[in-house]
Each structure stands twice: as C-alpha cells, then as structure tokens.
Design goal:
This is TIGR04066 family peptide maturation system protein. InterPro entries: CHP04066_peptide_maturation (IPR023823), P-loop_NTPase (IPR027417). The protein is 33% helix and 21% strand. The chain is α/β, with parallel strands linked by helices. It has two domains: 112 residues, Rossmann fold (3-Layer(aba) Sandwich), CATH 3.40.50; 210 residues, Rossmann fold (3-Layer(aba) Sandwich), CATH 3.40.50.300. The strands form three sheets. Strands 9-8-10-7-11-12-15 form a seven-stranded parallel sheet. The protein has a six-stranded parallel sheet with strand order 3-2-1-4-5-6, with helices on both faces. β13 and β14 form a beta hairpin. α7 crosses α8. The chain is globular and about 55 Å long. The termini are far apart.
Length: 349
C-alpha cells in the first residue's frame, strides 16, 4: 500500500481521505498546507486522526509519495515550487496534474502525471464519432463548489444499480478513486478549440468501445461563467469543449451555499446553461462553499461553511430541484429517478 501526503489542503482533501478509507492501494497518512490553513488542519486532524501540519518536511517523512492537488484556493505557486523541490530532494514519488505542472518549473520525467496526455490513434477524422450511451454532466458556477464530492456520490449510486459507469473526473484526485481523469491535451497551448473537441470526442469514444460502458458521468472543471469582477472561470472554456464533444442528456449544477434560490434566478441559470452548453439542468446542488470578493487583493476568496447543521432555506419548486450536498438520501432518490427516465427514453438508449 502506498502511503500519501496531500498538499495543499483544499475542499476536496476530505473527500479523498474518505474515499480511500478501504482502498488497498493508497492511504493518506498526512496532509500539509500553508500557514493560513493552520486552524483547518487542526480541525481535519481531530476529525480524521490523520497527521496534519504546515511542516511539509515532517509530513514527507511519513509517506512514500506526495499528491499535489490543484490550486483551487488561489495560493501562490511559489509555495508549490518550494515544496516540489523538497519532495524531489527527498526522493519521494510525486503525483500532479498537467494544469498545475504548467505553472511550476519541474522536469516532468520526474513526476507521475495524473492524466493521459497522448492523443488517441483514432484521432484522424475531423468529424465527431457517435457515442450512443446516456451522458450525465456535473457542472458548477465556479471552482470550489463540491463538484468532486457530487461526482463521487453519483458514481456510487449508479454502480449500486449494476451499471458500468465511465466516470470522467473534473479533479485529478479522481484517479485515486477509480475514475478516469480528463485527458491532459485539454490544457494544451498547441491545440485549437475545435481540435480539442474532436480529440476529446474520439478519446471518449475509444474508452466506451474498450469497456462497453452503460453510462457516462462527466465532471466539468472550472465554472460555467465569469462572476464578480475577479473571476473569469476562463469564460467556461473547458465546459464548452466537453459539452460540444458529448451530447449531454441531463446536467447537475453545483451552486455556492448562499446563492439566491428564487425561481427567476434558477430559470435564468438553467436557460443560460441550455443555450451555451446545450445541457438541460433541472438538478441544483447547494455546496458547502461560499465566496467573497477581496477588493484589496482583487481576487475571490473561498470559504467553507463551518456550521454543518445550518439548514438552507430551499423553496418549494416544481420545475427545478434544489438539493443540499449533505442530503445523501434525497440525492440518491433523484439519481435513481434520472436513471429510470434514461432507461425508459428510447431516444437516449
């Protein structure tokens, strides 16, 4: 069993720890992060009994490998660079995704990259290939809104029903939990937007043919639109590529905790996502996270709701379903309803 250190602490660290509890290949033995995360590290150590510290070198002594998570919290990449060098000097194995590696200086031959980066041999035709199984999409208003946790939950429910799921994860940590990470060429600076769409379509088509999956669950990195004045979410580039590579049958959309939930807001979001991404969204998920604009530093800062017993005021709505990320019972019920609809829809099957 490979013992892992995770750096830095972010909103998906606990999901990885929980998901690996009974895993026979990997075990998280330590979590390290920046000094400003000290109180959150102390809380996580109390909850999980896993060693958590801002002292990265001490964490290194406890593990065989280091997992560098994506920088979803807007930290300085200098901190990543320093710790990557420490990991290299220690001779430990390093796991990282291509989006992060593009931001730091490191010999990629010394890193275990968590995504396939080579194009499929099938990518010779300029046309999309037909993928004739249902597609469920998980999107979010932006970073840090529990898309990863939602994907883990949906995958588990679908597999309990006996279906084979091709789970394409929006988070590179998904590779440790039995998901496929989205391919690295999506982040390439040397491929055009249309080329990425065709390449992704062919890559997924090959995966489906190899394993004869019943359903595709795809997570879309980033957010569907810019918001506030400091967060562009890259203008929804990756969700747009994914939604053009696949014909999505149903979409889940993750919201920040204190999003206005009135009918007009939900309808406007749903209409926007359908128009821009051709994705029908009727399932909304309230995440643990919320954000505030930091006008001094001109950036968005993300926060996790501390009081997990706080119940959001979810209005009754016959057209749009809004669920709390903590309500596993209702989430499972809705997923089962969706599976039944997909199974009965001859146009999908």
């Amino acid at each position: 069993m490979e013992k892992l250190v995770v750096f830095p602490l972010n909103n998906d660290t606990e999901i990885l720890i929980k998901g690996l509890k009974e895993n026979k290949l990997y075990q998280v033995v330590a979590v390290s992060s920046y000094i400003e995360d000290r109180s959150r590290l102390e809380l996580l150590q109390k909850k999980s009994s896993i060693y958590c510290s801002t002292e990265f070198e001490e964490c290194l002594t406890r593990a065989d490998a280091i997992v560098f998570s994506e920088n979803t919290m807007g930290y300085s990449y200098d901190g990543y660079q320093k710790r990557v060098q420490m990991a290299l000097d220690s001779g430990k194995k390093i796991y990282a995704g291509l989006a992060l590696l593009d931001k730091i200086q490191i010999d990629r031959d010394k890193v275990c990259i968590l995504q396939e980066s080579e194009l499929s041999d099938e990518v010779v035709s300029p046309n999309k290939k037909e993928i004739d199984i249902p597609v469920i999409s998980v999107m979010g208003l932006g970073e840090n809104c529990d898309k990863f946790q939602l994907q883990v939950k949906i995958k588990k429910v679908i597999e309990k029903q006996g279906y084979r799921v091709l789970a394409l994860c929006s988070n590179v940590l998904g590779g440790f939990l039995g998901m496929e990470n989205l391919p690295g060429f999506l982040y390439s600076k040397f491929m055009s937007y249309p080329e990425k769409i065709i390449a992704l379509n062919h890559w997924i088509h090959t995966k489906v043919k190899q394993q004869e999956y019943d359903v595709i669950l795809v997570g879309c990195p980033g957010g569907v639109s810019e918001f506030e004045k400091y967060e562009t979410n890259y203008f929804g580039e990756l969700p747009l590529i994914i939604s053009n590579a696949l014909d999505v049958d149903i979409g889940f959309l993750a919201l920040y905790r204190y999003t206005d939930l009135n009918y007009t807001v939900l309808k406007n979001i749903s209409d926007f996502v359908l128009r821009k991404y051709n994705t029908p969204v009727k399932e909304y998920i309230l995440s643990r996270q919320f954000y505030k604009a930091d006008h001094e530093w001109k950036k968005i800062r993300y926060y996790t709701m501390e009081d997990m017993n706080e119940k959001p005021a979810i209005p009754e709505n016959s057209e749009y379903q809004v669920l709390d990320i903590f309500d596993d019972t209702k989430i499972e019920k809705e997923i089962l309803k969706i599976l039944e609809e997909l199974a009965n829809n001859i146009f999908v099957i």
